[in-house]
């Protein structure tokens, strides 16, 4: 494991909210990070599908770490903004958020993510599309 | 409690994810719904602030129920899309997501939310701004 | 030219704003529509780059017609919402907005677009990414 | 006219695209800038309403200059991203985009805008809501 992957994995481990969800890191490579989540009955909205806040949360983490994976050692990553379209009810046995860099800059990195739902046959379909903006910060506040 | 408020409260009670977060409904009036959340250490990102997925989740629920509160009895509400700006680190003792209707239509309702963070003195500051699109559905799929 | 392509081209021809910009339709196939635009000095912002409103306008038209290209004959298309990231200064000799369907539904169609800038050597680079929501309407108002 | 207002008005005058649209600056005060636009038949989409690219363009300019109005003298403003909801068909005799600062920071400024349509009686209704992100740059590229 190289230094960048180590940094991503150490930081993810400090996101106690990912632990609460039961989410774990999958693939970590430069500009590409996956976050995986098994379905649980305590993560749903009123119709029994995964709550949009849950799919958004794993997409945000996947995007943030995709951005961090190519940032300098002394930089931290913060989410400036994101937008999501919910493509289908989030029904499935497990979910994978695939965070990818669209455009990487010194301060601003534009990212996107797809969240895929896998059913019992391991057939996948997209349930969420995210487009977002991450920022490299060096010892300063979130959007300052 | 009138029928619309009853319907909102019943539906919110079925969102098991809100229970997992420790979130509860506050104000419920036509077109205006608040969701409240006390801080907890298992809801944070790597820097100790509330995870953006958490603030987004309560904002989404507040917006969805603001929309549902003015929909006909036979309609269900589904989130089509939303976008958020994260305005400041989500530090605080408790948080309130204020969902409001911007424009209400037969099929599409445009909504917004502010999430406020309250510190120990009960001083508030905004940490998230959401603009989103909700859809009234009648026995059909989410975006069909 | 089939009926769907004819419908797209007839509708585009009624968008007087596209004429004002000097934009024209490129590729029109099911779910995929391109809009092309040569650079002009009267389309710029304060630094001499194409105004973000211009690149957004051709991306919106490309997305709307990508959605319309797969809608039933009696449906019209309206933009519900969109969001864009500006990836780089919009410098170039010509620009192409590539509208694509992400997920097609009966009422709601989710779309995306990339706007590419071509320089004098015909090298391309992306300057805008759009994610948006289109709606099929049948003789009703825009978001009603 | 103070230095900040002068700077906004000089910069706006260099946006040739605003001239092409027939848009002009209205109110310019710290954090609040209005852009006004009379209706014209060459600014419409296929149903005869103002094209969404037009209302987005004046909203983007209003937001950018709202941000610039509170930035240091040596900073330029660039749009990082924005998202819009189209609330109603953009029918009217004239339109006003009201750009406002939501949260101002050293590098990132979060902005919003409403576009109002005025009919022949000067009755107004909102047709577009924007939420966006502007960036202060000092001699560097757009998102670098």
Mean of residue pLDDT values of chain A: 95
Uncertain residue ranges of chain A: 140-144
Specify the oligomeric state: homotetramer
Largest inter-chain interface? A-B, 41 and 42 residues
Give the termini distance of chain A in whole angstroms.
Answer: 33 Å
Order of helices and strands of chain A: HHEEHEEEE
Helix content of chain A: 10-25%
Strand-pairing-aware structural class of chain A: alpha+beta
How many helices of chain A? The count is 3
Largest sheet of chain A, order of strands side by side? 1-2-4-5-6-3
How many whole angstroms does the radius of gyration of chain A measure?
15 Å
DSSP strand content of chain A: 35-45%
Major sheet characteristics of chain A = 6 strands, antiparallel
Counting DSSP E segments of at least 2 residues, the number of strands of chain A comes to 6
Q: Based on Cα principal axes, name the global outline of chain A.
A: globular
Overview of this protein structure:
4 copies of one chain form a homotetramer. With 144 residues, the first copy, chain A, is an alpha+beta fold. Chain A has helices at residues 3-13, 16-21, 52-68; strands at residues 24-29, 32-38, 76-86, 94-104, 108-118, 124-137. A 6-stranded antiparallel sheet of chain A has the order 1-2-4-5-6-3. In chain A, a hairpin with a 3-residue loop joins β4 and β5. The longest helix of chain A has 17 residues, at 52-68. Chain A starts with a helix and ends in a 7-residue tail after the last strand. Chains in contact: A-B, A-C, A-D, B-C, B-D, C-D. At the A-B interface, α2, α3 and β3 of A face α2, α3 and β3 of B.
């Amino acid at each position: 494991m190289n230094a960048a992957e180590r940094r991503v994995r150490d930081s993810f481990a400090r996101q106690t909210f990912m632990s609460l969800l039961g989410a774990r890191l999958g693939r970590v490579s430069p500009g590409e990070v996956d976050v995986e989540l098994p379905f649980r009955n305590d993560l749903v909205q009123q119709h029994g599908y995964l709550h949009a806040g849950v799919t958004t949360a794993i997409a945000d983490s996947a995007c943030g770490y995709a951005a961090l994976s190519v940032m300098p050692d002394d930089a931290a990553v913060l989410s400036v903004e994101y937008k999501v379209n919910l493509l289908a009810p989030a029904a499935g046995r497990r979910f994978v958020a695939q965070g990818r860099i669209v455009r990487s800059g010194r301060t601003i990195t534009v990212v996107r993510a797809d969240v895929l739902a896998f059913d019992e046959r391991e057939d996948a379909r997209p349930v969420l599309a995210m487009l977002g903006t991450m920022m490299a910060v060096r010892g300063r506040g979130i959007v300052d």
